[in-house]
User: What shape does this take?
Amino acid sequence: MLDVYRGTLSLRTLRIWIEHLPPESATKTALRNAVTPEELERATGEGRPDQAPWSGTETLLAQVKDEVRLLRFTLLAVNGNKAPEFTPTPRPGIPPKSAITKRSGMSDEQRRALDPRLRDQPKEA
Assistant: This one.
């Protein structure tokens, strides 16, 4: 901090150093713990996992859990059983899949306009 006071280290450089600290560092942990619930909700909507209260270890553990569950669902499906739909573990800072808008399918007219091979085919009744 003395370098910032003396002017040998710019505030921009200090900000970049802080942003690139590992998630488990004391500075990043203090910054994450200081985030208000309103800011956390806004960060989740914007898809900002760097402002989430989870560390890298917790995020990795959630990924491992999802992979094990997905493997179990796949084995159930391969063996002929009806597996429930897989939903990943919710993570702070990442919006759920249901919040992401899906693209609607194209109509037949839009497909014909895009694909020249379909233009000359008769329309289905």
About this structure: The chain has two domains: 1-53, 55-90. The chain is about 50% helix and 0% strand. The two ends are 75 Å apart (CA to CA).
